[in-house]
Amino acid sequence: MVKEDVLALGAESVIFKLERWNQAFVLKSRQAKPYLLEEIDSLLRKTRTARECRTLIIARTLGVRTPAVYSVDLNNYTILMDFIEGTQFKLLAEKLPERQLTRLCFKFGESIAYLHEGEVVHGDPTTSNVIVDNQQRLWLIDFGLSEMNATVEMKGVDLHLIRRALETTHWDRQESMLNATIEGYVAVLGDGAEGPLSRMNEIRERGRYH
Amino acid sequence: MALVCLGLEGTAHSFGAGIVTSKGKVLANEWDMLKPSQGGIHPREASRHHSDLGPGIICRAMETAGMGYKDINLIAFSRGPGLGPCLRTTATMARTLALKLDIPLIDVNHCVAHIEIGSLESRFEDPVTVYVSGGNTQVIAFAGGRFRTFGETLDIAIGNMLDVLGRYLGMEFPAGPLIEKEARAGRDFHSLPYSVKGMDISYSGMLTAAKKLVSDGVPIPDICYSVQETAFGMLAEIAERALAHTKKDELLLTGGVARNDRLTEILTGVSERHGARFHRVSPSLAGDQGAMIAWNGVLQYESGHEIEVESSYVLPKWRTDEQDILWRH
Question: Which residue spans of chain A are classified as CATH 3.30.200.20?
Fold first, then answer.
């Protein structure tokens, strides 16, 4: 396979964009990191590739849009999947008027809730990992840190990470974005949202020096 | 004429007095660290350490700098975050000096001070900072007028984790350097829980598993080796996530655990992969000390900020992102 344009150099992978038969694909490759202990590095590359592939598929059964997976290579730590035409939510959020932004955040909260309803956590739910297509539909990507059989604690961490991402990346709009996301989350889960939400607040207070 | 600032640091087990000019020249940096004979740090004992030794340390700093009190233009102190009793003792000394000498008092955030003294030394303009110590494990970067915590530990700090493990292995405090030494002789890697959640990490599960290796009779060097590789690997990953996310091109390592050579080696590799420059803050400026407080005091004062004694109460839970950073754009 010929590797083409590098779309992004992520923290744990390189993303290539390929075009074949008039269709665009993404090849996600988890390359070796020589500065890590080899045992740790290869275990992480393998488990995360497998995990990502599995959750991309499971998420669809839970009602969350994800790129279709075409092939996975656990020896070379690569996944070949659909290229989603759209804009990163992170980039879009800076430009959108308030009402459109909160509507998308509401949908983001719904998507996370669908995962949680299926006992799945995303593991890295930042606005970088959401793509908005031209019909204003949300696609979730980057499931390398996802986990199944999620506990209330794990769901609480997922929500905490959303808040953290809004705080560091969308500081001037974090409040309305977080509120809308939580509204979407509650709209799906109802009373079931209570546990993870109160855990989110608890987690924030841990680990700090006091 | 350059201004001269006396900075007092006393957020935890160390008390420090540093004297720095507004040109960024460190004239003196004296400190003392409380070493508990057993167990961890008790806030009351630490604050007593500060009140007993603090005045002597300040005098030593003045002597080293070859200055009299009339030469001091500004007093800065660590207002938080930290242990309440320690913060109050240190703040009391700073307020007294400010009133007695009739000079401005400046309240400094301990974590921000670590970043700024590191930036001064490295000449970095806008780094991603990995701040690792006994009480803190954070990945911080400047965005939107404030220093934002991109990632941190969800339970215990890395230095604390190493100290607790060290105590379990019968090592003295601080255990980090001894663990590093043992790890060099490690041969067999034992897999330990590796816990990265987004840009956050967690060490408590790994610590529990490492303690189990001890009771299983695994040789100490192998335990130390496995713990270091796992703990630093996790830290490297969140640093890498922050670099990839912010697209900044400088990586700064600071805090007491910055002394560790293996951690430095790993983060150097991270920097190279992302085309970023790397700097490890030298030990005398990486640990808790007064020079960083003094330098941050200068920056804050020059951007028009000082505090009245009446409103200078300490902030034990002061978050890094709660302060507007007036001197950066």
Answer: 3-82
Of B184, B223, B218, give the one whose Cα is nearest residue B206.
Answer: B223
Q: How far is A23 from chain B (nearest CA, A)?
A: 28
Give the CATH H-level superfamily of domain A3-82: Phosphorylase Kinase; domain 1 (3.30.200.20)
Interval A17-36 mean pLDDT: 94
Closest chain B residue by Cα to residue A32: B273
Task: Decide if A210 and B241 are in contact by the 8 Å CB cutoff.
Answer: no
Rounded-to-integer distance, Cα B163 and Cα B188, Å: 22
Furthest CA-CA distance within chain A? 59
- What mean pLDDT is reported for chain A? 94
Cβ–Cβ < 8 Å for B175, B210 = no
ipTM score:
0.90
Taking the CA of residue A24 and the nearest CA in chain B, the distance in Å comes to 24
Nearest to B98 by CA among B308, B297, B313: B308
Which is the catalytic residue, given A5, A124, A172, A191?
Answer: A124
Positions of CATH 1.10.510.10 in chain A: 87-208
Active site residue A124: yes
Longest CA–CA span in chain B (Å) reads 64
pLDDT band (50, 70, 90) for residue B21: very high
Is the model's pLDDT at A3 over the cut of 80? Answer: no
Q: Does A33 touch chain B (CB under 8 A)?
A: yes
Closest CB to B197 among A123, A167, A168: A123
- SS (HEC) of chain B: CCCEEEEEECCCCEEEEEEEECCCCEEEEEEEECCCCCCCCCHHHHHHHHHHHHHHHHHHHHHHHCCCHHHCCEEEEEEECCCHHHHHHHHHHHHHHHHHHCCCEEEEEHHHHHHHHHHHHHCCCCCEEEEECCCCEEEEEEECCEEEEEEEECCCCHHHHHHHHHHHCCCCCCCHHHHHHHHHCCCCCCCCCCCEECCEECCHHHHHHHHHHHHCCCCHHHHHHHHHHHHHHHHHHHHHHHHHHHCCCEEEEECHHHHCHHHHHHHHHHHHHCCCEEEECCHHHHCCCHHHHHHHHHHHHHCCCCECHHHCCCCCCCCHHHCCCCCCC
The neighbour count for residue A204, using CB atoms within 10 Å, is: 16
Please give the pLDDT value at position A207.
Answer: 54
B296 alpha carbon, distance to own chain's centre: 14
Closest CA to A31 of B189, B240, B226: B240
The structure's pTM equals: 0.94
- CB proximity list for A149: less than 8 A, separation 6 or greater: A119
CATH superfamily of A87-208: Transferase(Phosphotransferase) domain 1 (1.10.510.10)
A47 to chain B: closest CA residue? B194
Check if A156 contacts B (Cβ < 8 Å).
Answer: no
